Amino acid sequence: MNRIATSLRSLRGVLVATSIGLAFSLVGCGDDDFDAACSPWCTVVADCTETSFSECVDACAEESSQARSISSECAGAVRNLNVCLGELKCAEFEAWADEIPPDSYPCKSADDDVDSVCIG
Description:
Elements: H1 3-16, H2 32-48, H3 53-70, H4 72-85, H5 90-98, H6 108-119
Helix pairs in contact: 1-3, 1-5, 2-3, 2-4, 3-4, 4-6
């Protein structure tokens, strides 16, 4: 499994535990498209967990960078997932994190796209 897939799965588990293990030294999410996708997603994380907005932005920046290093299609899929996640309420966020229900949890389609495009 490549790094982005591991990061996404790890991010889900770590966020459920209310901390992000991907805190890196990056300050922003890169280009404007990633800034726009990271900010709403990180607001959800900050509202629904004990993880700070800035910790999430650091993790989002690293994840976005990893996705761009794989391909533009992977970067787009990660961006789309972040946009979807940025629209969730806390109960939906929990359902996404736990993948409940398994066949139709929130943002499942975007998760599947990332798996398909970034993992292959």
